[in-house]
Amino acid sequence: MHYIHCLNNISHYGTDLLTSKYKLTDDISRASGILVRSASMHEMDFSDNLLAVARAGAGVNNIPLDKCAEAGIVVFNTPGANANAVKEIVLCALLLGSRDIIGGAAWVSQNADDPDIAKAVEKNKKKFAGTEIAGKKIGIIGLGAIGARVANAAVELGMDAYGYDPFVGVDAAWGISSSVKHITNVDKIYRECDYITIHVPAMESTKGMIGEDAFENMKKGMVVLNFSRDTLVDVEAMTEALENGTVSKYITDFPTPDVMKMKNTVAIPHLGASTAEAEDNCAIMATRQLMDFIENGNIKNSVNFPNCDLGPASQVAGRIGVMHENVPNMISQITGAFGNADVNIENMMNKAKGKFAYTLLDLNAPASQSIVTALSDIEGVIRARIIV
After folding, report:
1. pTM recorded for the entire structure
2. Rounded to whole angstroms, how far apart are CA atoms 246 and 182?
3. Among 250, 198, 199, residue whose Cα is nearest residue 221
4. What is the pLDDT of residues 16-39, one digit of tens each?
């Protein structure tokens, strides 16, 4: 029996997938797997029972990735599961940035008791007039699951779409409209576009990427949309850009005390992926990945270990997964342990991701605890586990 603990409320469409091999538990120390959304795990202690954490969402800044990797705990996320929800709110933000809908609606509410409201509307509506987005240029920085959808939708809405992503994957590239112009220098987006929308992960290399240098190159009066992470935008530089008119409007899904002081800013309460459909999709994807790892040793969409897949474990006599440091001579030591035990390796896969690596091995006989012990004694091995 494998025990699963939910740190947040997880859609039942995900947990309903758990078979009779699994049981939900409130005792986190018993859990083989954890399902989480936004709960912070940085101060948590992990038991030796914990094999994996599955984040029902894309961002994993609430999970200590290196700490988990060093303990042999795989961390999954669910890229693309909430992409449509975020795409739709970005399209909403485009319209909020082009027309003063929020200001106009607020004015109507403030004058709700005016018996001549209809006449007042006709007189004052010009204060809230804007421009159409059709024919305007939009720059999409990051063409992953969300950025690609935003770019395609912008084209369908009649916009001139420019996409920048030096690391765009093959799968993502196939899904991007041929009408989206691929830009190799992000400065072209800053100089020419009327709108910018950011869709890159929050990393040390992307922190404050929309900052002073970017604003110096920007077309006057640009609208900036941020539905990725608050840290991508330099607060001081954005405040100055709004004050001097470089940016005419900033629309973000991440309210902070500094953001709330900015002029011409619309702050939305982190609603990007907050739809019933997105939560269901994320829960389903997270649960399936968790089960596949526990039952088959396969890894897909991990953020701290490499992807590795040998198919169903039920089709082989024995399978062992080995998590280890990405160092020389490790494979020969691992295979040597099987040779010493007179066990034949029928198939194996080894993948590395940064400092850590994963080796999955199919055997011609059931795996034994003695082999696991021998593997665990190898310097640099973090965890060895019998899958079947």
Report:
1. 0.84
2. 24
3. 250
4. 999 999 999 999 999 999 999 999
